[in-house]
Protein backbone atom coordinates (compact mmCIF):
# COMPACT_ATOMS: atom_id res chain seq x y z
CA UNK A 1 0.00 0.00 0.00
CA UNK A 2 1.30 3.37 -0.87
CA UNK A 3 0.41 6.38 1.21
CA UNK A 4 0.72 9.67 -0.43
CA UNK A 5 0.82 12.63 1.90
CA UNK A 6 -0.70 15.68 0.41
CA UNK A 7 -1.07 19.19 1.84
CA UNK A 8 -4.85 19.05 1.43
CA UNK A 9 -5.64 18.51 5.13
CA UNK A 10 -3.34 21.28 6.22
CA UNK A 11 -4.89 23.72 3.80
CA UNK A 12 -8.41 22.70 4.93
CA UNK A 13 -7.46 23.46 8.53
CA UNK A 14 -5.97 26.76 7.50
CA UNK A 15 -9.16 27.64 5.64
CA UNK A 16 -11.24 26.73 8.71
CA UNK A 17 -9.10 28.96 10.91
CA UNK A 18 -9.46 31.81 8.47
CA UNK A 19 -13.22 31.44 8.27
CA UNK A 20 -13.42 31.58 12.07
CA UNK A 21 -11.76 34.99 12.27
CA UNK A 22 -14.94 37.08 11.66
CA UNK A 23 -16.75 35.02 14.31
CA UNK A 24 -13.92 35.62 16.77
CA UNK A 25 -14.03 39.34 15.99
CA UNK A 26 -17.73 39.47 16.76
CA UNK A 27 -17.24 37.51 19.98
CA UNK A 28 -14.53 39.95 21.03
CA UNK A 29 -16.79 42.91 20.28
CA UNK A 30 -19.62 41.34 22.31
CA UNK A 31 -17.22 40.71 25.15
CA UNK A 32 -16.03 44.32 25.15
CA UNK A 33 -19.65 45.56 24.99
CA UNK A 34 -20.78 43.52 27.98
CA UNK A 35 -17.66 44.42 29.93
CA UNK A 36 -18.11 48.15 29.38
CA UNK A 37 -21.88 48.62 29.23
CA UNK A 38 -23.00 46.24 31.92
CA UNK A 39 -22.16 46.29 35.56
CA UNK A 40 -21.95 43.46 37.99
CA UNK A 41 -23.86 43.73 41.21
CA UNK A 42 -25.05 41.33 43.83
CA UNK A 43 -28.62 40.25 43.32
CA UNK A 44 -30.48 40.32 46.57
CA UNK A 45 -33.78 38.50 46.19
CA UNK A 46 -34.76 39.78 49.62
CA UNK A 47 -34.61 43.39 48.45
CA UNK A 48 -35.80 43.97 44.91
CA UNK A 49 -36.59 47.65 44.63
CA UNK A 50 -39.65 48.74 42.60
CA UNK A 51 -39.36 49.71 38.95
CA UNK A 52 -40.24 53.18 37.79
CA UNK A 53 -39.68 55.50 34.86
CA UNK A 54 -37.98 58.08 37.08
CA UNK A 55 -34.67 59.23 35.68
CA UNK A 56 -33.44 61.22 38.69
CA UNK A 57 -29.94 60.30 39.74
CA UNK A 58 -29.77 58.51 43.06
CA UNK A 59 -28.21 60.71 45.71
CA UNK A 60 -27.04 58.94 48.81
CA UNK A 61 -29.28 60.00 51.67
CA UNK A 62 -28.02 60.86 55.11
CA UNK A 63 -30.33 58.24 56.48
CA UNK A 64 -30.76 55.04 54.53
CA UNK A 65 -33.62 52.75 55.42
CA UNK A 66 -33.85 49.29 53.88
CA UNK A 67 -36.96 47.16 54.10
CA UNK A 68 -36.44 43.57 52.97
CA UNK A 69 -39.03 41.07 51.75
CA UNK A 70 -39.25 39.59 55.24
CA UNK A 71 -40.28 43.02 56.58
CA UNK A 72 -37.04 43.70 58.45
CA UNK A 73 -36.05 47.36 58.76
CA UNK A 74 -32.41 48.36 58.66
CA UNK A 75 -31.11 51.88 59.23
CA UNK A 76 -27.72 52.65 57.68
CA UNK A 77 -26.99 48.94 57.53
CA UNK A 78 -27.90 48.21 61.14
CA UNK A 79 -30.97 46.19 62.03
CA UNK A 80 -33.23 47.85 64.55
CA UNK A 81 -34.46 46.33 67.77
CA UNK A 82 -37.51 48.37 68.64
CA UNK A 83 -39.85 50.26 66.37
CA UNK A 84 -38.58 52.52 63.64
CA UNK A 85 -39.87 55.79 65.12
CA UNK A 86 -38.16 55.35 68.48
CA UNK A 87 -34.93 54.31 66.76
CA UNK A 88 -35.03 57.36 64.51
CA UNK A 89 -35.76 59.58 67.50
CA UNK A 90 -32.35 58.73 68.90
CA UNK A 91 -30.55 59.77 65.74
CA UNK A 92 -31.04 63.51 66.14
CA UNK A 93 -32.66 64.14 62.79
CA UNK A 94 -33.45 67.58 61.44
CA UNK A 95 -36.10 68.60 58.87
CA UNK A 96 -33.29 68.97 56.32
CA UNK A 97 -32.26 65.33 56.68
CA UNK A 98 -32.67 63.43 53.45
CA UNK A 99 -34.11 59.97 53.95
CA UNK A 100 -33.50 57.37 51.28
CA UNK A 101 -35.66 54.28 51.36
CA UNK A 102 -34.96 50.96 49.66
CA UNK A 103 -38.09 48.84 49.93
CA UNK A 104 -38.91 45.45 48.46
CA UNK A 105 -41.37 45.83 45.59
CA UNK A 106 -43.73 43.03 46.61
CA UNK A 107 -44.34 44.25 50.14
CA UNK A 108 -47.73 45.76 50.96
CA UNK A 109 -47.88 49.55 51.07
CA UNK A 110 -48.40 49.35 54.81
CA UNK A 111 -44.68 48.54 55.04
CA UNK A 112 -44.04 52.17 54.11
CA UNK A 113 -46.22 53.45 56.96
CA UNK A 114 -43.59 53.40 59.74
CA UNK A 115 -41.25 55.35 57.49
CA UNK A 116 -43.89 57.92 56.50
CA UNK A 117 -44.96 58.33 60.13
CA UNK A 118 -41.37 58.70 61.31
CA UNK A 119 -40.66 61.24 58.58
CA UNK A 120 -43.79 63.19 59.55
CA UNK A 121 -42.93 63.05 63.22
CA UNK A 122 -39.48 64.52 62.67
CA UNK A 123 -40.73 67.11 60.19
CA UNK A 124 -38.46 65.71 57.49
CA UNK A 125 -39.41 67.27 54.17
CA UNK A 126 -37.87 64.95 51.65
CA UNK A 127 -38.31 61.24 51.34
CA UNK A 128 -36.54 59.50 48.48
CA UNK A 129 -37.53 56.05 47.31
CA UNK A 130 -34.92 54.07 45.39
CA UNK A 131 -36.33 52.65 42.18
CA UNK A 132 -34.98 50.62 39.31
CA UNK A 133 -34.90 52.19 35.89
CA UNK A 134 -35.07 49.37 33.38
CA UNK A 135 -33.97 49.75 29.79
CA UNK B 1 32.97 21.98 11.07
CA UNK B 2 30.16 22.60 8.79
CA UNK B 3 26.75 23.13 10.39
CA UNK B 4 23.70 22.53 8.40
CA UNK B 5 21.14 25.11 9.29
CA UNK B 6 17.73 24.28 8.10
CA UNK B 7 15.13 27.02 8.04
CA UNK B 8 12.60 26.41 10.83
CA UNK B 9 9.09 25.98 9.57
CA UNK B 10 6.85 28.72 10.87
CA UNK B 11 4.54 27.31 13.53
CA UNK B 12 1.10 28.80 13.66
CA UNK B 13 -0.36 29.31 17.11
CA UNK B 14 -3.67 27.57 17.53
CA UNK B 15 -6.49 30.00 18.25
CA UNK B 16 -8.80 27.39 19.74
CA UNK B 17 -7.80 27.79 23.44
CA UNK B 18 -8.00 31.56 23.12
CA UNK B 19 -11.49 31.33 21.64
CA UNK B 20 -12.52 28.98 24.45
CA UNK B 21 -11.40 31.45 27.09
CA UNK B 22 -13.04 34.37 25.31
CA UNK B 23 -16.32 32.45 25.04
CA UNK B 24 -16.22 31.65 28.75
CA UNK B 25 -15.58 35.32 29.56
CA UNK B 26 -18.40 36.35 27.23
CA UNK B 27 -20.81 33.94 28.90
CA UNK B 28 -19.78 35.20 32.32
CA UNK B 29 -20.33 38.85 31.44
CA UNK B 30 -23.58 38.12 29.59
CA UNK B 31 -25.06 36.24 32.52
CA UNK B 32 -23.80 38.37 35.38
CA UNK B 33 -24.09 41.90 33.95
CA UNK B 34 -27.15 44.01 34.54
CA UNK B 35 -28.16 47.11 32.66
CA UNK B 36 -30.66 48.35 35.22
CA UNK B 37 -29.87 51.64 36.87
CA UNK B 38 -30.87 52.62 40.36
CA UNK B 39 -32.81 55.87 40.36
CA UNK B 40 -34.93 57.70 42.91
CA UNK B 41 -38.41 59.09 43.35
CA UNK B 42 -38.58 62.13 45.56
CA UNK B 43 -41.70 62.55 47.66
CA UNK B 44 -42.93 65.07 50.14
CA UNK B 45 -44.32 63.57 53.28
CA UNK B 46 -47.69 65.02 54.30
CA UNK B 47 -47.76 66.85 57.54
CA UNK B 48 -51.29 67.62 58.75
CA UNK B 49 -50.51 71.28 59.38
CA UNK B 50 -49.36 72.05 55.86
CA UNK B 51 -52.20 70.39 53.94
CA UNK B 52 -54.45 73.38 54.35
CA UNK B 53 -51.77 75.65 52.86
CA UNK B 54 -51.80 73.85 49.53
CA UNK B 55 -53.90 75.47 46.78
CA UNK B 56 -56.21 72.56 46.07
CA UNK B 57 -55.65 69.18 47.60
CA UNK B 58 -57.04 66.26 45.67
CA UNK B 59 -57.36 63.03 47.54
CA UNK B 60 -56.34 59.93 45.69
CA UNK B 61 -56.90 56.55 47.29
CA UNK B 62 -55.20 53.67 45.56
CA UNK B 63 -57.33 50.55 45.77
CA UNK B 64 -56.68 46.93 44.92
CA UNK B 65 -57.55 45.50 41.47
CA UNK B 66 -55.88 48.41 39.70
CA UNK B 67 -58.55 50.90 40.77
CA UNK B 68 -58.23 54.33 42.31
CA UNK B 69 -60.62 56.63 44.11
CA UNK B 70 -60.00 60.21 43.04
CA UNK B 71 -62.04 62.70 45.06
CA UNK B 72 -64.82 60.14 45.55
CA UNK B 73 -64.95 58.78 41.99
CA UNK B 74 -63.59 55.33 41.23
CA UNK B 75 -61.41 54.97 38.12
CA UNK B 76 -59.32 52.24 36.58
CA UNK B 77 -55.71 53.38 36.95
CA UNK B 78 -54.78 52.94 33.30
CA UNK B 79 -58.02 54.38 31.89
CA UNK B 80 -58.14 57.47 29.70
CA UNK B 81 -60.70 59.12 31.99
CA UNK B 82 -58.30 58.84 34.91
CA UNK B 83 -55.44 60.28 32.86
CA UNK B 84 -57.68 63.18 31.81
CA UNK B 85 -58.57 63.89 35.42
CA UNK B 86 -54.90 63.88 36.39
CA UNK B 87 -54.06 66.24 33.51
CA UNK B 88 -56.86 68.58 34.63
CA UNK B 89 -55.43 68.60 38.17
CA UNK B 90 -51.94 69.28 36.82
CA UNK B 91 -53.18 72.14 34.64
CA UNK B 92 -54.95 73.69 37.63
CA UNK B 93 -51.72 73.43 39.65
CA UNK B 94 -53.42 71.23 42.20
CA UNK B 95 -51.73 69.02 44.74
CA UNK B 96 -52.47 65.35 45.26
CA UNK B 97 -52.40 63.49 48.52
CA UNK B 98 -51.88 59.84 47.76
CA UNK B 99 -53.04 57.17 50.14
CA UNK B 100 -52.71 53.51 49.32
CA UNK B 101 -54.85 50.69 50.58
CA UNK B 102 -52.74 48.58 52.92
CA UNK B 103 -53.11 45.52 50.65
CA UNK B 104 -51.76 47.35 47.62
CA UNK B 105 -48.20 46.39 46.80
CA UNK B 106 -45.38 48.93 46.88
CA UNK B 107 -44.79 48.41 43.15
CA UNK B 108 -48.37 49.51 42.37
CA UNK B 109 -47.94 52.59 44.53
CA UNK B 110 -44.76 53.50 42.68
CA UNK B 111 -46.55 52.87 39.38
CA UNK B 112 -49.29 55.37 40.19
CA UNK B 113 -46.72 57.90 41.41
CA UNK B 114 -45.12 57.48 37.99
CA UNK B 115 -48.50 58.19 36.37
CA UNK B 116 -48.98 61.31 38.49
CA UNK B 117 -45.53 62.58 37.56
CA UNK B 118 -46.15 61.83 33.90
CA UNK B 119 -49.38 63.84 34.06
CA UNK B 120 -47.40 66.81 35.34
CA UNK B 121 -48.46 66.81 38.98
CA UNK B 122 -45.60 68.31 40.95
CA UNK B 123 -47.06 68.62 44.42
CA UNK B 124 -47.46 65.05 45.54
CA UNK B 125 -47.77 63.99 49.13
CA UNK B 126 -47.76 60.46 50.44
CA UNK B 127 -49.90 59.51 53.41
CA UNK B 128 -49.84 56.32 55.48
CA UNK B 129 -51.93 53.49 54.09
CA UNK B 130 -55.46 52.74 55.15
CA UNK B 131 -57.01 49.33 55.67
CA UNK B 132 -60.64 50.23 54.91
UniProtKB/TrEMBL annotation, chain B:
Keyword Cell wall biogenesis/degradation (UniProt): no
Membrane-spanning ranges: 12-31
Record flagged with keyword DNA-binding: no
Species the sequence originates in: Amphritea pacifica
Family classification: Belongs to the ExbD/TolR family.
This protein's UniProt keywords: Cell membrane, Membrane, Protein transport, Transmembrane, Transmembrane helix, Transport
PANTHER family per the UniProt record, alphabetical: BIOPOLYMER TRANSPORT PROTEIN EXBD-RELATED (PTHR30558:SF3), EXBD MEMBRANE COMPONENT OF PMF-DRIVEN MACROMOLECULE IMPORT SYSTEM (PTHR30558)
Membrane topology: Single-pass membrane protein; Single-pass type II membrane protein
Main location: membrane
Protein name: Biopolymer transporter ExbD
Domain of life of the native organism: Bacteria
Compartment(s): Cell membrane
InterPro entries, A to Z: ExbD
